[in-house]
Structures are given as structure tokens and as C-alpha cells.
Amino acid sequence: MKFLLLIHHNEAHFAAISDPVKRDLLAESVQVTHDLHAKGQYLHASPLLPSTIAARVRVRDGKCSVTDGPFVETHEQTAGYFLIEAEDRAAAIDIAARIPGARLGYIDVRQVREIDGLPCSEIIV
Predict the structure, then answer these.
(1) Which pTM does this prediction carry?
(2) For the chain, domain boundaries
(3) Which CATH number fits domain 2-111: 3.30.1360.70, 3.40.50.2000, 3.30.499.10, 3.30.70.1060?
(4) What is the pLDDT of residues 31-76, one digit of tens each?
(5) CA-CA distance, 6 to 100, in Å (whole number)?
(6) Residue 70 contacts by C-beta under 8 Å, 6 or more apart in sequence?
(7) Are the CB atoms for 1 and 113 separated by under 8 Å?
(8) Alpha carbons 62 and 66: distance in angstroms, whole number
(9) DSSP of the chain, one letter per residue?
């Protein structure tokens, strides 16, 4: 089964973390990806740039509107993701608990619905 692990944290709190600690957190995340890859569970992962350069797109009654970030509805912003293969939800939760972002905020664990007829499922970076 495929799972999307959505990492959320408070960008202001993250910005206050020292650069050496941020580098250590990134190195730890990269190590998790290598561990998952060795077990055939890694599909893709990436941090996201700050929400201040994001856009929200909505289409209502055929009209497109775009709103610039940041978005104040929540204190936490989506900071990154892991796309993984896991045996079941419990295994995906165990993997999410190993991601450093779980210590800074929280991680949503969402099973991916498989749909026939989509283009190549291989992710190209």
C-alpha cells in the first residue's frame, strides 16, 4: 500500500532553530529515506519551500482565483512529505514516527487511493 506522510510544523518556530540543528534534522530525514529505500519502501520525499511563496488556487462557477500565502487558518504549515510503501497503516505510522518532523510538529498519515488509467506511476524529479 502507498501512503503519503504529510509533515506539518510552525514555520516561525522552525525559522528560529539554528542552522546546525536544521542541517542535522535534514541529514536525519535523508537517512530515513535511505533506510526506506534499502527496504523497497521509499518512493519520494521532499521538504517544501515556505508558505510565504505559496499560492492557493480555487475555481468557483468557472472563475479562477489565486491567493498568495501565508495562510493563517492554522498555526502549522505543510512543510514536506514522504511517499512510501508500507504493509499497512500501522507500519506507515511507525515510519512517520521516525521522521524528525514528527518532533517539530505532526505528520498526517494518509493512504493513497490507487486509480487505474493514470499515466506512469513513476515519479520523475
Answers:
(1) 0.87
(2) 2-111
(3) 3.30.70.1060
(4) 999 999 999 999 999 999 988 889 989 999 999 999 887 665 667 8
(5) 12
(6) 11, 50, 51, 52, 54, 77
(7) no
(8) 13
(9) -EEEEEEEE-HHHHHTS-HHHHHHHHHHHHHHHHHHHHTT-EEEEEE---GGG-EEEEEETTEEEEEES--TTSS-EEEEEEEEE-SSHHHHHHHHHHSTHHHHSEEEEEEPPP-TT-S------
The C-alpha cell of 99 is what?
521522521
Side chain identity, residue 55: A
The CA distance from 57 to 64, in Å, is: 7
